[in-house]
Design goal:
- With 611 residues, the chain is an alpha+beta fold.
- The chain has 3 domains: 7-114, Phosphorylase Kinase, domain 1, CATH 3.30.200.20; 119-316, Orthogonal Bundle (Transferase(Phosphotransferase), domain 1), CATH 1.10.510.10; 374-554, Helix Hairpins.
- The chain has 23 helices and 9 strands.
- A hairpin with a 2-residue loop joins strand 5 (94-103) and strand 6.
- The protein is elongated, with a radius of gyration of 34 Å.
Length: 611
């Protein structure tokens, strides 16, 4: 499919809402504009959001997509129906329109979302570090929200600071969730996730294959732990905030035993148990992470959070194999011997059928086990993140190209704009003269009488300015000869005022035009510079992910098969994960393989963070 429009392409279309939008409400809406009077999109990696105000005064956020998302319409329809049934106050109303906006003659989808007032989560926490009681109430509100999602079998899918808005009224706090691209509802059971979520909040093993009601458990626990930690020790914020997180970073989740943050939380009594639960959750599969309510209520002790298949494997000596690996080779040999006996016994067709069936079943089981291995899942997630960064960089480069073309067009259009401006001024000057000649004057023209005047007025032609040839042609019950005489009368007046109509722009108008061109070019230069900065940020993050991918052990399917038939061993750390409770704090105190970046100041509203 062809590329979707760039943010600047959408901006150009939204300048004329009446022709850009299919929705009558949006056709009459007014976009928020910049100092130059142009619609100002708030861009992210995969969408451009236009704040707009409808004719009734209702504020909405119009989300225009920058890439094609397969089955997007079906996803949003299922999400909308489920959220309507669930009736949760945290979610906001939205309307997905498959052909909602037309750009350069082609229709594209858009999402109209209810405008939500609120403060993004990380900024709210930063502004209330000196109010631990407020943060404590926020933490409890968060826990209540997680419990509601669990009860309804729903998952937002990308819980992170930019998608969580906090509203405060007195001592009460209310949470609102925005951006439902990855939301899971029961109707989408069996689908794959459209995205894998923000890296500083998601389970390190999460891939697009993980899509279920459990998706919010890990980020929910991470955010709750961070909120409780900030309430207990506000100094943690200055130490670990980087502007794109809530204390935790992806490096903490990939290797919690070497994380200074987890060490600090272990020494903080109010959150030590929560930190241990989160740390051990990093070692289990995403679907095995317990609900926050279970951790809170003590129904699962922190030390028992990882007591599942992974923890049981971790309890074994490293040289010991799992039951599957231990019995794989004997079972295969036994099956081959049995099938061979059937074949030699005079039933080759049965033997062949058993071979085919066994190969399919065994191969499927091996592939399933292989894909569930932690190093395989983590490598896949990192590869997906790299691909996502690459797609974002490609889109940003297209935006730079589009903006550069618009800049060149703007510089080249000065003569055309000068001619347009001069024509407009000439029309205005002529109108100012002709509007003083009322249509009754045509009675002085030979062949025109009072009835012609009456019929012209009935057609709302009351002055010479309004008596254009096009307007006169539409007047009913007037002969062609009378129309010609009226046009001749008006043409004589136009010639009379020729000297009063400017034939070039005044110096003031010329300066005004130059300033407009210069400001538009300056604005485009700023957009180009900001977009290039985004490209560099995306490249830096992509390289960081690539470095982590390069450091991870690689486990191919071939090597795994050789391991199963005892011809090879698994690479270091590729089999069992370390037992979560075995932690050498003294060894990790001074180790920080991924230093905390300097905080990025970002005080924009939620819709200014992109999507």
């Amino acid at each position: 499919m062809s590329d979707y429009p760039t943010p600047s392409d959408y901006q150009e279309a939204v300048q004329a809402p009446a022709t850009a939008f299919a929705d009558p409400t949006l056709q009459d809406a007014t976009p928020r504009t910049n100092v130059l009077g142009l619609p100002q999109p708030i861009t992210g990696g995969f969408a451009a959001v236009f704040p707009m105000t409808t004719a009734s005064g209702r504020r909405v956020a119009v989300k225009c997509f920058l890439t094609d998302v397969p089955e997007q319409r079906a996803r949003y329809q299922a999400v909308a129906e489920s959220l309507d049934d669930a009736d949760l106050s945290a979610f906001v109303d939205f309307d997905y329109q498959p052909g909602g906006i037309r750009v350069a003659g082609t229709e594209y989808p858009l999402l109209v979302m209810e405008w939500v007032e609120g403060t993004v989560l990380n900024r709210f926490v930063r502004e209330h570090l000196d109010a631990p009681d407020t943060l404590a109430r926020l933490a409890e509100a968060w826990a209540d929200l997680m419990a509601e999602l669990e009860e309804k079998d729903l998952a937002h899918g990308d819980l992170q600071h930019g998608n969580v808005l906090v509203q405060q009224a007195g001592d009460a706090v209310r949470l609102r969730l925005v951006d439902y691209d990855t939301t899971y509802v029961p109707a989408l059971e069996g689908w794959r996730s459209a995205e894998v979520g923000h890296r500083n909040y998601q389970h390190p093993d999460r891939t697009d294959a993980d899509f279920g009601a459990y998706l919010d458990r890990f980020p929910g626990l991470a955010i709750y732990t961070a909120l409780r930690a900030c309430a207990a020790d506000p100094d943690l914020w200055d130490k670990y905030d980087n502007g794109e997180n809530l204390l935790f970073r992806d490096a903490d989740f990939y290797d919690p035993d070497r994380s200074p943050l987890f060490d600090d939380l272990a020494d903080l009594d109010p959150v030590a148990d929560l930190a241990e639960a989160l740390r051990t959750a990093c070692y289990v599969e995403p679907s095995d992470v317990p609900p926050l309510s279970d951790v809170q209520a003590g129904r699962l002790e922190p030390a028992d959070v990882s007591m599942n298949r992974t923890r049981q494997r971790a309890d074994r000596p490293r040289t010991d194999r799992s039951s599957f690996a231990r019995y794989f080779l004997p079972v295969i040999l036994g099956a081959v011997a049995g099938i061979g006996a059937v074949g030699f016994g005079g039933f080759p067709v049965v033997a062949f059928a058993l071979t085919g069936m066994g190969s399919l079943l065994g191969g499927g089981w091996v592939v399933r086990r292989y894909r569930r291995l932690s190093p395989v899942r983590r490598r896949r997630r990192l590869e997906q993140e790299i691909q996502r960064f690459t797609e974002a960089i490609r889109g940003l480069k297209r935006e730079v190209e589009s903006l550069t073309e618009k800049r060149a067009d703007m510089l080249a259009s000065i003569d055309e704009r000068r001619a347009e401006r001069l024509e407009r001024l000439q029309e205005e000057a002529l109108h100012d003269r002709l509007k003083h000649h009322f249509i009754g004057e045509v009675r002085d023209v030979e062949g025109l009488i009072h009835k012609h005047v009456v019929r012209l007025k009935a057609a709302n032609v009351r002055t010479a300015s309004e008596a254009t040839p096009e307007a006169v042609a539409d007047v009913r019950r007037i002969s062609d000869e009378a129309r010609a005489r009226i046009n001749t009368w008006r043409a004589a007046l136009v010639r009379k005022y020729e000297d009063d109509v400017p034939d070039e722009l005044s110096p003031a108008e010329e300066r005004r035009l130059r300033r407009y061109i210069d400001h538009r070019v300056e604005d485009l230069d700023d957009q180009i510079a900001r977009t290039k900065e985004k490209i560099q940020v995306q490249k830096t993050e992509r390289e960081r992910v690539r470095d982590r991918l390069d450091e991870m052990p690689e486990l191919s399917m071939g090597r795994y098969l050789r391991y199963l038939i005892r011809l090879d061993s698994l690479p270091e750390q590729a089999g069992d994960r370390p037992r979560p409770s075995q932690r050498d704090a003294s060894a990790s105190r001074d180790v920080n393989p991924d230093p905390v970046p300097e905080p990025v100041s970002d005080d924009r509203e939620w819709w200014e963070r992109g999507s």
